[in-house]
Write a structure and sequence with these properties.
The complex is a heterodimer of chains A (about 300) and B (about 170). Chain A is an all-alpha fold. Chain A is built from ten helices and two strands; from the N terminus they run H-H-H-H-H-H-E-E-H-H-H-H. In chain B, helix 2 packs antiparallel against helix 3 and helix 2 crosses helix 4. Chain B starts with 6 loop residues before the first helix and ends with a helix. The chains are: A mainly alpha (about 300), B mainly alpha (about 170).
Chain lengths: ~300, ~170
């Protein structure tokens, strides 16, 4: 259960024979904060992880073009280093998330590329792809989903001889989010769209289908994950999902309150004094120079 | 079907999701759960971590807002305070012995574990949302409405087609 690692995670069945973990428990707090393993984890996992949001923040920069251009490489470098953390800092339990990223990056790319091809393979006014892109896109999406399903039914990703704990979290949250958001999105399309009943039905069926997969997994064992484990994970995934969404919404609410309070505190702008004759003449000159000026 | 934006509409949007969620959880509970005693801790940790990190990100976004308002300090301090409240609550609750500690041995371990956990949950959420939006957009672009909302200048082509049909 508790692995005692400062960057540790919950690891249900991992044997506690790693001496470094026990050493940390007996270390004084000051030493534990600056231990070599912590510095390694900081350099090879946490800094690359921090580069990902930093890169996205740089992409949003409007003032400096070179900073914006560096954004995407920074994100990419961060992702690569996080994925590589399972080799660069194998002792850190957090690198299990890098292992997860490596496992799911393939299906996620298939889903993303498939969605792109399915969207732009249709009769869109700009950036239209050849007609074959549309069925190929749907095929790619189906392959991505089949790949993810195979990771549950055929061979789950293993980390230190056990199922990667983050895989179970990711898989349960993904399926739950897919079926809940799918039904909601179907309602949105139906209520706000114009004659989009068929689209809403298809999206709703997709969401319900995800729910069906979730139900099947509640009843049947997977390759390495039992039905009971899956039910536990779904229960915990609901807690994760609700907590995360509520936290994000609360932060956005705080942001809105701060801005509203500041805008309300601003004094009203007093009406400006009318232009003097000299100012009017100056304005007329500028307008004349720009509109009615001589041809160059 | 198209409706006006209102409170009732949003209730209609959220209702099936909540019903579905309750249904799944009830079936789950009836079938029998394993070790889920940490569910509340997971919820609280996810809530506090998501709040603090999002508030921190929005604190960064506040600089863009400040750029358009002659760099006022009040909203920056306001958002910094909101972030610090979240961080303070995490510190307070994690230091209360077993209140929010899951399986980690130290407060530091739990804090970093929460961040990685949130990143994994966020990745799953973004993947699911991206897939759903992609499928919806693919359906929408693949099935354009029969009557477009803007004028279409294809009348000449239609006449040609009619002529060909009549010749046949």
């Amino acid at each position: 259960m508790a692995d005692g690692h400062p960057y540790g995670v919950e690891r249900t069945a991992f044997t506690l024979d790693s001496t470094n973990l026990h050493q940390l428990e007996t270390m004084p707090m000051g030493m534990a904060l600056v231990g070599p393993q912590q510095i390694e984890a900081l350099l090879w996992f946490w800094l690359p992880l921090a580069l990902v949001p930093l890169g996205f923040w740089m992409l949003l920069s409007r003032s400096n073009e070179s900073v914006r251009k560096l954004g995407m490489p920074t994100v990419f470098f961060g992702f690569i280093m996080v994925i590589a953390s399972q080799w660069t800092v194998p002792d850190s339990d957090s690198s299990a998330s890098g292992h997860l990223l490596l496992v799911v990056i393939g299906p996620i790319l298939l889903l993303g590329i498939g969605s792109f091809m399915a969207i732009f393979g249709g009769p869109v006014p700009v950036g239209r792809l050849p007609p074959v892109a549309r069925p190929a896109g749907y095929f790619s999406i189906a392959m991505g989903l089949a790949w993810l399903l195979a990771l549950h039914m055929v061979q789950s990703p293993l980390w230190r001889g056990e199922v990667n704990p983050y895989w179970m979290v990711w898989w349960a949250v993904f399926l739950l989010a897919l079926c809940l958001a799918g039904t909601s999105l179907a309602q949105v399309v139906y209520l706000f769209g114009d004659n989009r009943g068929r689209t809403a039905a298809n999206v709703g069926i997709f969401g319900l289908g995800s729910g069906g997969v979730l139900l099947v997994m509640m009843f049947n064992d997977g390759a390495q994950i039992s039905a009971l484990q899956m039910r536990s994970q779904i229960w915990l995934a609901a807690a994760d999902l609700l907590g995360t969404i509520a936290g994000i919404l609360m932060a956005v609410l705080a942001f809105a309150i701060v801005i509203t309070l500041y805008e309300r505190s601003l004094s009203e702008i007093e009406p400006a004094a009318p232009l003097s004759e000299a100012e009017k003449q100056r304005v007329s000159d500028i307008i004349f120079d720009n509109i009615g000026g001589e041809d160059e | 079907m198209s409706v006006d934006n209102g409170k009732g509409t949003w209730a209609l949007v959220l209702a099936p999701t909540l019903i579905f969620l309750v249904l799944i959880l009830v079936i789950n509970a009836v079938l029998g759960l394993g070790e889920v005693s940490n569910a509340f801790k997971r919820f609280a940790n996810a809530f506090l971590t998501a709040y603090t990190l999002t508030a921190g990100a929005l604190f960064g976004a506040m600089f863009f807002y400040a750029d358009s308002r002659n760099r006022p300090l009040a909203p920056l301090f306001g958002m910094l305070a909101a972030t610090m409240v979240g961080a303070g609550m995490i510190f307070l609750f994690l230091s209360q012995s077993d209140l929010l500690m899951e399986a980690s041995s130290s407060m530091q371990a739990q804090f970093f574990s929460n961040i990685v956990h949130l990143a994994v949950v966020f990745l799953a959420l973004v993947t699911a949302a991206g897939l759903l939006v992609g499928i919806t957009m693919a359906h929408i672009t693949g099935n354009p409405p029969r009557r477009l909302p803007w004028p279409v200048e294809v009348e000449d082509e239609v006449e040609v087609v009619v002529e060909i049909d009549s010749e046949e």
